[in-house]
Amino acid sequence: MQSLLIRPATYEDIVLITAIYAHAVEFGTASFELEPPSQAEMTARMKVLLDGGFPYLVAESDGTVLGYAYAALYRMRPAYRYTLEDSVYVAPNMHGRGIGRMLLDCLVTESERRGFRQMVAVIGDSAQTASIELHRAVGFRISGTLSNVGYKFGRWLDTVLMQRHLGQGALTKP
């Protein structure tokens, strides 16, 4: 792998983003979706985030998208408007190479630059130790575990909640 570039995602990236996410849905427990969304659906989801001014990034090497990350509102109610939920996905053949860490570091920085104050990770499956450790390395702390709230691949799955402040966090008013 040559140099890795983290850059804003574009609609031209959606084919590879869709493929990366489809693999995560079909074979993993990071997402609680049961069927991979279509390219049209992934495009529509990207549009909502980009139109809303949220950060959406890709990791690229040699013109190929190897991973992506984005932040979206944690919840839709107005009081949550300064709190984001992050999502990070890396191509299955590229795991363990630091791509997720680079994406998450950049996502945190970009979210702070945009004035957000908290970031929440909603990690599907408490057995996702790589994701938990990635978030811990970027300053997240475990806030709690929701036991057995998802059912996928014939088994019940937990959700681990992690959180970190962005910028001034709750020390000052927005």
Description:
The protein is of the alpha+beta class. The protein has a single domain (5-165), classed as Gcn5-related N-acetyltransferase (GNAT) (Aminopeptidase). Helices cover 29% and strands 33% of the residues. It contains four helices and seven strands. A seven-stranded mixed β-sheet has the order 1-2-3-4-5-7-6, with helices on both faces. A hairpin with a 2-residue loop joins strand 2 and strand 3. Helix 1 crosses helix 2 (39-51). The longest helix has 15 residues, at 99-113. The mean pLDDT is 97.
Throw out a few tags for this protein.
33% strand; alpha+beta; seven-stranded mixed β-sheet; 174 residues; 7 strands; globular; Aminopeptidase
Give the SSE layout.
Layout: E1 5-8, H1 14-27, H2 39-51, E2 56-61, E3 64-73, E4 83-90, H3 99-113, E5 118-124, H4 129-137, E6 141-152, E7 155-165
Helix pairs in contact: 1-2
Sheet of most strands = 7 strands, mixed
Task: Output the strand order for the largest sheet.
Answer: 1-2-3-4-5-7-6
CATH class: Alpha Beta
The assigned CATH architecture is 3-Layer(aba) Sandwich
Our estimate of the beta-strand percent is 25-35%
Structural class designation: alpha+beta
Low-confidence segments, ≥5 residues, pLDDT <50? Answer: none
- For the record, the count of structural domains works out to 1
Do you know the CATH topology? Aminopeptidase
- Which radius of gyration do the C-alpha atoms yield? 16 Å
Ends distance: 41 Å
Please provide the ordered H/E string of secondary-structure elements: EHHEEEHEHEE
User: With helices defined by DSSP (H or I, 4 residues minimum), what is the helix count?
Assistant: 4
Quick one: how many beta strands? 7
Considering the protein shown, what is the CATH homologous superfamily? Gcn5-related N-acetyltransferase (GNAT)
- Write down the overall mean pLDDT: 97
Shape estimate: globular
Percent in helix: 25-40%
